[in-house]
Amino acid sequence: MLNESEAPDKHKMSVLIKINRKKMVPVNLIECSKRFHYCNIMFILLMISFFNTYGNQKINDKCPLIPSPKKSERVLSVFEITNNTAIKFDQKFTDQAYYLQKQLLKYNQVTLSLNPTAFKTQIVLKQNSAAKNKEVYSIKMNSKEILIEAADNHGMFNGITSVIQMARLCESRNGKISMECWDIEDEPKYEWRGIMLDESRHFFGITKVKQLIDWMAFFKFNRFHWHLTDQPGWRVEIKQYPLLATIGGIGNHTDPFSAAKFYTQEGIKEVVQYAKERFIEIIPEIDMPGHAGAANKAYPEFSGGGSDKFPEFTFNPGNVNVYNYLTHILKEIDCLFPSQIIHIGGDEIHYGNEKWKSNQGVMELMRANKFSNLKEVESYFFRRISDSLLCMNNRVAAWDEVADYDISNKKTIVFYWRDDKPEQLQKALNKGFPIVLCPRHPMYFDYVQDTLQVHGPNWRIFSYNSWEKVYQFSLNDIKVTYPENAEILGIQANVWTERIATEQRLDYMIFPRIAALSETAWSNDENKDISNFKIRLKSQFKLFEEDGIYYLDPFTPAKTGEPVR
Predict the structure, then answer these.
(1) Cα separation, 159 vs 164, whole angstroms
(2) pLDDT tens digits, residue range 231-269?
């Protein structure tokens, strides 16, 4: 309410412009006409129209994007995307222009022209060679133009996904999208921003994987770690060893006799290309020498045995033919995945290497090389397989157990997962391995999200992984000393599927934690604000619903009940 001193003269022509709900600003049109040119009066009238239209909406000072940009500034203007909007682009960004066109048609039902000769408003994709980081982009917006600049295609894609997200957060009315304007300068905190999906234990298929990749791109992830082989099932076709898929693909964690499910090589290529268009590299995992049960079911002659609880768990490191067998498999995998990184597991071998103690080939190997324990056998196995991958010009990726082995540090990426063993991370750091952080707490998305959930590891023992814990994760949470030259590539979440058998439950365990992870992986700590993130997160729920995602609403948990499987 105005006080007396602020009240306008009743005898003068005045207009009250509503800036927000608390303050009214008087503008005297007669005085304006005397003091200013006609164009200034027209500007005032335009502002009146703007605030009449948008006056009941709070003017946000925080960009609505997830993840939060490095720098953002609100521009007091509105850009309208309509069927009369054109996309103008440098030739370098042709693919990104088509992607933007397709996404706006798919989600907002507007058809943008790629012909820049006739337009009312335009979105301009322009190269800026000054940017050094290939993922850097900037956006400048006004009522007539959105200008996206980047040096590289990946940066341009990041800028486009920001525009797509802003457009999807707006309602389309009468064939137009009215977007608040922002000036943005942005780049990622981490090089590696990933999600791992285990499809050995339960298989989901191309359509579901593509949907996950879409959401990863939407939130600016760039690594999809695809766990394709393990005890329950082998999920990728290998031409030289067809029984791996047709026999090894039988069964899953729930039903060991279910029909074989696997990806053909053509299916793999389709997914790889789909991810490539979204600037996501796929890192395949072919687990060895443990977690080999499905492969040993298909080709038992290469088995190294197991234990009572984990039968036929390992490949046989004492059989020279095993190395040829696995190398041929990895050659076919290398042909399918252009990332030049293959994850070969290396974890939990002690669960099922009991038979190695009595295996004649293993005993001969130990005598010939003067090995004193099975740990040295593991290291020998890993060294030979790593050498095969290096000869294929691949980098090796493996779980943190491999920090114990004598292998190339610069050519091997270590994935730190055992958060109860920070000394293992310290060892990997001291040896100079590049690191991806995915500690069980809070980065295992098969763990329950709050105390109301019951299906998952017992949170009373293991704790639970809420979206808040994912959002607040930092390097300081791990009690290690980081050397000055420590190479922390980034972070990822792992989705193991022992307790995830349906698409509905898969969605429920990933969403909304994927949004929290995206900001943790992308945004600098000083740009993170958990209170504001809650507001932005809630606005994403309608997008989840539009895509048929069965998500957890952490603010009203009873709204979406926990699927059992």
Answers:
(1) 9
(2) 999 999 999 999 999 999 999 999 999 999 999 999 999
